[in-house]
Specification:
- It is a single chain.
- The protein has about 220 residues and is α+β, with helices and mostly antiparallel strands.
- The protein has one domain: 2-Layer Sandwich (Beta-Lactamase), CATH 3.30.450.
- The protein is built from 7 helices and 5 strands.
- It has a 5-stranded antiparallel β-sheet, with helices on both faces.
- A hairpin with a 2-residue loop joins strand 1 and strand 2.
Amino acid sequence: MKETPSGWKEVSDTILVIMDNIVGSKEQRFSKEFKRIKGAQNVEASDVFRNITQPEKQINELVFGIYSAFDVLVRGTEKYILKVNIATILDEKVCDINFHYPNNHPVRSDPEDLNQKDSAITNAIKSKQPVIIDSILEESRKPKKRFAVTDPSRADEDGSLICYPVVYDPTKQVIFVVSIHVDQPYVFKTRFKSSYETVMKAFVLRIKLEYSLMALKEATDGKVT
């Protein structure tokens, strides 16, 4: 029995490349802003802060990064569709899903449906622990299930799912839940939980950083001069 997922040897190199690209994107904004303000007569600190720190753009890049990392882990699977969503959580409820990849596979579930008490996202929020479902079809038929069918027309669809809660350290609250779904069962396996956590920790740290920047932008909007 394998102790790590397929592609485990390659995923660390993939993550390094992903992080280099993300840091490079931010460095380009620093360079562009430096050129803009060099020799300028009047420079507003709020404009510099806003132009350099673009957390929404960075989170979108992190979503793509998570997709790329897990794509390496599931490449042994034939004809799969992999999707990554980030649900924004407020007061332990999904309020929106603003970030997802690929863009040609839109989010099909409404926040209201995802907030059912037996949904995987709700379980991740309540437990503050990753929820890994080997087969969503099997899970949905259990007496004490951790997956809620949000569309009856898709009740017979199967797949694997990881729901990873992002806990913001200052408040100890879940601020996001990252959902990683593949349309084949048993691709994600509960016994690989520690491997998935190792991969996700690299991205979660940066997601929390971007969340802090979003909060700072909102708190200082119109106040920084």
